[in-house]
Amino acid sequence: MTEKTIPLLPCRTELIQSVVDFYTALGFETTHLQKSPYAYAVVERGAVELQLYGMKDYDPASSHSSCYVLTDDVDGLHAAFRSGLKAAYGRIPTRGLPRIGPLKDMSYGVRQFLATDPTGNTIRVGQVISGGGEEEPATAPKETFARALHMADLFADSKQDYPGAAKIIDRVLKLEDEQPTPVQRVRLLVLRGDIAQRLGDAEGARGWLEKAASVQLSAEERETAHDALARLSDLRG
Nearest CA to 120 among 3, 22, 6? Predict the structure, then answer.
């Protein structure tokens, strides 16, 4: 026997065309689309199939709908999605709806990013990296700054609790008896600037991102901080 799971995701009825257009930009093919007597669409990309159904009073801003896509080339998909979105929208949307998030190595052994469509559905795309697995609990590290990064990432990306994530970072950056490594400092500052942008605080975001850009890193540290530096470039651009 062969089984297949197909996520069914809600969509505000009048947004179904814009949602289909979003997935087209990501490289999905629309295999079914109807707007009456009710809105329904099916999009496919390789073995990944998503079905979207219309809801008249659905609120994208309060959506918690999501699914997880496992891949063996998360970097390739992230690059392809970004390229497609830039071609479709003239820019890479990093906040609001729709949006695509940064690529990150999570502390529980998965390298992943999040893409959210115009109606608030979040597609989490991940690849298991050495020593990890998607079935493992997201156990927080014990070291102060690694733990702060872990928790702030969860608050910002999984819970979308931006004020909560900001408080975590602000608290550890004020510590006087402990200091983060240069790479940790860059990651914390970039994430803090990212959060400030998502909260609509453009001036604050510029300040955090300028601090991140001023951190001196060796060639080896720059390689380790590659994802954060790429995000820094996006946010400052």
Answer: 22
